[in-house]
Amino acid sequence: MSSALLFQKGSIGSLELPHRILMGSMHLGIEGDAHQLNQLKAFYSERAKGGAALMITGGVAVLPAGGGDHMFCLTDQNHRDQLKELVQAVHHAGGKMALQLQHNGRYAKSTETGLSPVAPSPIMSRITKETPRELSITEIEAIREAFIEGAHFAKQAGFDAVELMGSEGYLLNQFLSPLTNQRSDPYGGSFEKRMRLPLEIISGIRQSIGKDYPVIYRLSGDDFMEGSTTRDETLLFAQRLVAEGVDALNVGVGWHESRIPTVAASVPPAAFAHIVSAIRQAVDVPVIGANRIHTPETAEAVLKQEQMDFIAPARPWLADEGFANKLQSGDPAGLNLCISCNQACLDHTLGHPLKPVGCLVNPKTGHEWAWQNRKKSTAALNIAVVGGGVAGLATAKAAAEDGHRVTLFEAKERLGGHFYLASQIPSKDKFRNTIRFYQTALERLNVTIQLSTQPSAEALKTYDKVFLATGVVPFIPEQLKGTQLSHVTTYSDVLSGKVPFGKKIVIIGGGGIGSDLAHFIASTNEVPKGIQGFFEDYGTKVEAPASVELSIISRSPRVAKGVGPTTRWVLLSELKRLGVKLYKGFECLEITKAGVWIANEEERHCIEADQVILCTGQVANRELYELIKDDVPTELVGGSYDASELNAAKAIHQGYHLIFDNEAINI
């Protein structure tokens, strides 16, 4: 791809860039903590070395009331000093960086800031469950000056550009929308008045820092909120921003309150490119797009179709710190692609409590400083890794990178283990990219891979060290009557294709596995969208296949309890759309040939079923461990170490850290 459009030079105002791949803004959950500054510098420096043309910081609050937990705030001199060090480190690594200025408005949480949230109007936020205080004219003017001064700081501190966050439902976006701006003064009412604050800010920035310094505005292309800013208003606003002196528009979509997913794996690639394209056609400055542009093919396509001028993915840079370099060198097989799981990134920064950002598929992310200072082994060992799931793959890769001779054994004919089974779930097919990446890496590291092979205990005793990643087996609850019946099976047998579907299915267990399995089975009730569209184009309706009736029995009143906050609501919406019946807060009493008896405090009845699938947990597979642990140094990793939950992020990280520091990172 070295000659692709992605690698043509470009510019944003006076800022010349070597190619079109930027790194979008994202919070890492460590900003503002002086003890984490080395890690913050290491994170961005690695991406600078990885070829990012321009990186945009996570949002930096211009005032305390607009900030939050682990956000830089420009009223704190120590934070300013840290930001100066950060940009110097990026420049030292050969990169460029823009400072993003932000005010959370009604999305700010009083528990984090110690201050009442403020907004154009006192409209409660469904995200924070707080009603903000309405800003006075004097306070609005102070916010305007804080943004202007923030841009001045960005220039003086050495940042290569400044970006204003005016998307995703934050304060400047709130002023624009009639849903959150119901004022009747100079800053509310008509669209002209609702635009006033951001336009005054841009005008003030130009007066303060001159015409040559690059200014980017993060614009909401579509709020995905009924009754919010219209498409025509958005295009007009884009044109007015450019007229006031903006050098580029970075187009975001959706509010945090929107019911349309924007970053989940279920969102099709480049789903919002048409929104970016409409803005690009309305203005004469570069336009940047981001959401769901995470593969080389998608990135090249949106540029080729002239839908945008630059791409600014964020999470793909978590998955692979060398994202741009690998694209430019034509190494797609060596690219560790983002699978859009959100588990260790958005679920961390939007969860409670907040956790530092990592990456499920890339255990180095979030630990760059420690990785740069790691100590490699001085003696090469002969190492066996048993189990080719993600825990075993990560362990084998880390051991080979540490200079050891590694043999990986996998009992099945393919690598991936439970991670491969999970790739059967709708929108999780991308998991196979991770398996492909690790397999490619192992082959390049000269790891010997033996498929369809179960090593004997005697053979393993000839190695210097053994890592057992033998995974888990489904747990069959002995106290539940009827589990031995012929129509009862487990999630692994269904996902592997060993057992076909029934017609009336009851899934026992409403956690993440049970909910995903229900999604997998229920989706077979639908005609694939491509086929459906084909017939609709010719005015013919296509009949759905034979329907499967599906029920989930959840002991917890909260179905899919273990699924992260950014994707759980999407999964539950899909289960509802597909007609899956949820029995929440019910205990399973007995499985009979006719079905499953369930009860809660108020009722007891039988759900008819010709198939019952157990998603009742799992137990560690440690048979081999017991046979060799006294004869050869042996470590358990992944599910065989901790079967309490199937957590790929934890398994991959544990594999790496067992090699390099003999500690399992708590993910």
UniProtKB/TrEMBL annotation:
Its cofactor is FMN; [4Fe-4S] cluster. The keyword Protease does not apply. The keyword Oxidoreductase applies. Keywords: Flavoprotein, FMN, Iron, Iron-sulfur, Metal-binding, Oxidoreductase. InterPro entries: Aldolase_TIM, FAD/NAD-bd_sf, FAD/NAD-binding_dom, NADH:flavin_oxidoreductase, OxRdtase_FMN_N. Residues 382-626 form the FAD/NAD(P)-binding domain. GO terms for molecular function: FMN binding; iron-sulfur cluster binding; metal ion binding; oxidoreductase activity. Residues 6-330 form the NADH:flavin oxidoreductase/NADH oxidase N-terminal domain. It comes from the Bacteria. In the N-terminal section; belongs to the NADH:flavin oxidoreductase/NADH oxidase family. PANTHER family: 2,4-DIENOYL-COA REDUCTASE, 2,4-DIENOYL-COA REDUCTASE [(2E)-ENOYL-COA-PRODUCING]. This is 2,4-dienoyl-CoA reductase. The lineage of its organism: Bacteria, Bacillati, Bacillota, Bacilli, Bacillales. The gene is nemA.
